[in-house]
Protein 1
Amino acid sequence: MRIPIKCVAILTLPIALAACAGGLPGFGDDGKSMSYTADRNGTNQPFPNNYRTDLLAFMKTYLNNPVGVHEAVVAEPVQRTVSGHVRYVACLRFSARESDGGYREPKERAILFVDGRLDRMAENAGELCAGAVYAAFPEMEKMTR
């Protein structure tokens, strides 16, 4: 009995796809966050000159309602080691208007930059924002839809 090549291909396709779906280190399955930008192999990261503008654009899409943000402060980006890579990190603290119209305690977020551009936000700023020196961020409090 001879098995046609088409049948062999159809039977081996799921095995090949399953191998592709397996977790690879550095792609999110190892507990680290995922990033879509390549590493610069230890070279210096450029300072994110437009970090305030980038933050405003990002927060306008991130927040359900960007209107009425209170107590917005930002810390200028500083270099920190994040998952073994040097990144510029800006810290942001604000109190957004909740769906019930009220406000909660201000939340602190760490914003990571790669190659001078906003890469991602870490909601658990903790150690990344330890010792951050904040300044008022009135542009964020004036955001509109």
Protein 2
Amino acid sequence: MLLDGASGAASAPRIRPAQTRSRKSLPFLAFFASMCFVLVTIIDPTAAFAITADEQNVVTNAPGKKVEPQVVVAAQGVRAQAARDAFTITKIVVPPPVVVAKKSAGGGSAPAAGIPDPGSAKAIAFEMVTARGWGQSEFDCLVSLWNKESGWNVNAHNASSGAHGIPQALPGSKMASVGADWATNPATQITWGLGYISGRYSTPCGAWGTSQAKGWY
């Protein structure tokens, strides 16, 4: 209790006004709180996501148990599935390339004829084919062609058409331009036949291709 100096009476105690926080500090605190939120979001992006226990699968490390990915629920309601351990790498097997047999430049192809017997009509034909610069594939076509036409029989004769000999010349007398023995000599018939093929089809494979398509050459 205080005494008044003039009257000596007791005076009431002075009550100091309560100390208030300056309003100037409020913007600073708001800015500080905003920066803290931004920093936390940058450092830990997952802080913006809410994970609920009832929306995620149970993860177990027990032997023989499959580990299921967890479901993360974003604040915006978007769900993303973390499946880091769920994918597998499959080895890609490239099949070998398919090799297609080349056809002769003449347009046809034929099975391999092999090596002809010495002194045979095919042996004579092989020497003539080689002398013309044709390869093995052309000889193969020639063998297939005349196997079909006459069976390489020098006396083969078609009674209905008049074709004769190994090349089945029509008529057979055309082969007289090569030799008078055209009816019985295989070399004469082969010489004429190769000349006919060269002038009309360029190569034996060209003649063989026509024979396959039309039935004749």
Protein 3
Amino acid sequence: MDVVLPGGRDARGTLDEPDDEATEIVVACPPHPQQGGTRSDQRLTAVSDALGEQSIACLRFDYGAWNEGRGEQTDVKNAVRWARERYDRVGLFGFSFGATMALCTAPGIDDLWAVCALAPDSGREGADAVVALDDIDAPVKILYAERDSTADWEPVVERARELGMAVEGLSADHFFLGQSGKVAARVVAVFDSFR
């Protein structure tokens, strides 16, 4: 089902619903839009499919017009707001830039089910994932690629460990080529563990 997110930005999404009626949903944030990241990203679709098998809905969305990470965080908040109006429990997931957006947005959202960040980048001013970790009031798990030479993930992982958050390294590069199923299973396990 196609979705137009609320708010002043032209952000749209796809709602993937399981066969049975879902009361839980995960909002999936795509990778960097200026590098071809969309809601159709193979990691997002694999996670969505795996969530559906656990009777969890998934809202994959595209960001509105590029706005240096600020507008993209607004898009995440609007996607969560849309989901919250329809489901009892809302979680956040993101890959790469999307993981950074999920982490940076989470502090401003109450009662999140959990946040799962796959291959996050530490970000930059206005979207600093390392700083954001201190203020997230929800369970967090960071999944990182041990051979990732694309994202600046080390500061995020280090701070998450200092805060006692769950961290797991996967034997992969940043793109997890050929590992979408494995990654999806790890992400679903995060949300399942907080049911």
Protein 4
Amino acid sequence: MGDAERGSTTVELALLLPAVFLVMFLGLQAALYFHARTVAITAATEGAKAAAVEQGSASDGAAAALSFVADAGGDDVLPGAGATGTMTATAVTIVVTGSALSVIPGWAPDVRQHVTAPRERLTS
């Protein structure tokens, strides 16, 4: 390498490294967000199954959803998790909300998933 090219590797690295870190952090952020979404949709599904039984209630479903989130990691996976349920004569809907963890300080993407399931009932 000649004197004219001396230090060019340092300049190239200084320009390339921020782009590599940006791609790496974006990938990590996407993984954290999609994991939080998966936990929320699974919790809503478990809550809907618990509420859809013949003697189930919307509050049973919300409690089951929050119990699932706690078992899946609680605030380490879905900080600020909350669950609500609504019930009609034929269906139950459970909504799970929370935030995804973030690698960007001060930013926490919201997560909201809902599941609607038919209620069990006896017909004659």
